[in-house]
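re: ur question from the group chat, yeah i did fold both. here u go
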Amino acid sequence: MKPAVYPAAIGCGCLLGAGIPIAHAAEWSVSPVFTLTGDYDSNRRIRLAAVGSESGSITADFLFQRATESSSFSLEPRYTWRRFSDATLGDGDDRSVTAALESHWERAKLNLSAQLWDQSTLLSEPLETGLIQANSHRLLEQVTGGWTWSQTERTDLVAQFLYSDVSYHGRFSAQLAGYRYPSGSIGERFKFSERGSVTASVFGSSLRSEGSPGASRETGLQVQTTYSFTQRVDVDASLGASSRTLAGVSSHGTDAAFSLTRHFELGNAALQYSRALVPYGTGFLVQRQQYTLTGLRQLTPYLNLSLSLLRVQNSVSATLPGVDRRSYVSAVLGLDWHPAEDWIVGTQMSALRTRALENDRATVHEWHSAVTVTWTPPKRARSR
């Protein structure tokens, strides 16, 4: 089915409930995580006049969970204190809280989640609007939900919805109007074998913003197929057609997504492609194509190597206001070492190439390196 979240906030909160173990009695637990990070960035604002800077951050994350035989609930507050060597970059702190609820019955399952996230534009906007400003923050308020009803052994009724309210505050937030974005889908899933299924659905979304002359809308139909060729090879593909109204102009278009995942004995690799309308902080729906290649390899029982390649291609309408770039290309290489059960030491190097906002013909590069130390104390739990 058409994803009910956009990339910037994809998966936030919805996965919390899915990972909670189901207990025979009510189980309460708390899982703290503390992270210390230091980094260097050659061009944090992604501008032609590159200025390098360092930063340090401390993150405290607490996951509170309650699980019973038929339901689970989680609450996760998180705070990151971040400071930069370049004082003009200002406040880089992040604050978020996420709540998730999962309930299941004999033939039905419900997932609900809510999130409040206040994040610096230095982190939220590089692959979104491109408007990276010091002392400016994006405030995301989001509610998501999913419902599955098993009608027969082979058919399910599935529904999803999302509501996002994005606003910006701070010293340099005038160009970012924010938006309100409800979306949803409902469809029928048919399991043609133990390995695969087909889902036909209808979907719709609407975006309203003070920065747009009118509401942007999309309604359409979509077909999704999932299939496991073997225990190690999975495919997920979807294709949709929609009617669109973007800033008062009506048109027709297509949405598509494809994912191929290959599992190995000591790792995995995944290739993904998506083309869809996504909400922008400037107050518009913009068609975006995204190509992603990721891989993970376990070098030793205590050492993992990861690689990620990403290309983002925005439609021309994204650049008409003159506030974003047509494309981004990035690569990330990471190495994680587990010296002890509760500790992870990670290093990461990344590179980004795009066009300059000041001159579309000029190329801008960014190089980033970071070292992260994560401590995960033992989870504390008790049953009642």
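okk and heres the other one u asked abt
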Amino acid sequence: MVYLILLFIVGLPMMIIEIGLGRMSSSTTLVGFGKISKQPIWNGLGWLGVLTAQIIMCYYVMILAWVAVYFIDNLTGNISGLGTEDLERHFILIAANSKKIVIFIFGIMTIAFLIIRQGLQSGLERYSKYMIFTFILLLLGLAIWASTLQGAGLGYKWYLLPDFSKINLEVILSALGQLFFSIGVGMAIAFTFGSYTNNRENLITSTGWIVFMDTFIAVLAGLLIFPAIFSFGLSPESGPNLIFITMTSIFSRLYYGEFLGVMFFLLLFLAGFTSLLSNLQVLTNSFQDKYKLSFFNALFFVSAFIAFGSIPVVYSFSDSPLIVFGMTVFDLLDFVTNKIMLPLSGLFIAIFGAYVIGFKKLKAHLELGAENINIGNYWKYIIQWVIPISILIIFINGIN
């Protein structure tokens, strides 16, 4: 519930604003803010977004490596017939096998580097709509099956009914960080994608569809995962490993479960890999635009940063993890990006759009190509006051 409220009050307007600012600048984020404001100091906002995206990719690619391992394990039948407790131990062993995960990460990054270097990512992205459609159908079928499980009602209750006693500013801040991460606000991605569009593009409708599809898939996944969690006796708060244990538990109970497991983790990997390619492309273009680097050098720098930056993150799950400020590197980076950098980036983008560019100019630009859509003047107060103050209050109280 908190996530959905923030989505409509903060997330959707923020994404429309950031994409609109990108189109207004026709530049990447490291130079675009300074270009449209005519004040180079605002390019620091672009740096915040780029650095946030770079750091997030360091642990994102680790999770992508886990997905790749699970795809292979399902393909080879390595986890066939394992019970829930065995699957929990299996995940721990995979995550703790740091050398194997690092090898997978470097393999993934090498393939991503070569695809972008050869200009082949457009081909993969062309087929991604079919891949996403197939993924949604698979999730839908599994969600229907999950509704038949004993204990599914408890899962729906836990997932869909809000527990107001647990809602506090820390929960709200976590939801805000997850929201920005999920739809791509404050990470230089939306700004740069906006710079690729022309003034005939209906940014408001396009952004609405992006946010809707992202939220629809997330809700659908929840309707699958949480009934299964309660049916299999798992904890709904067991962390990032939850999807691996829950989904493999589901496939172990289904006819043709091994085939469905292969398809699920393959599609999940391809969806994540396509997102990785998009981030690499945006970050590469940003450094290329800022420093006039060759495409190869900019791509190599971004790819190397992510690949080598992922190593201490991977070892967070080893038997002797590096502890910094009482947290593993993974927990530290997750805290810094989701609870500090993303909200700060969103706050400054809101201030930039509302006060540096101004509501009148921003409104006129967003309505370009928007057909009969008219942004009401009440949005002035939402952009100038509601969004910045909401983010600021959540941010200040959430990190205390």
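fwiw on the second one: The chain has one domain: 2-398. The radius of gyration is 21 Å. idk if thats what u expected
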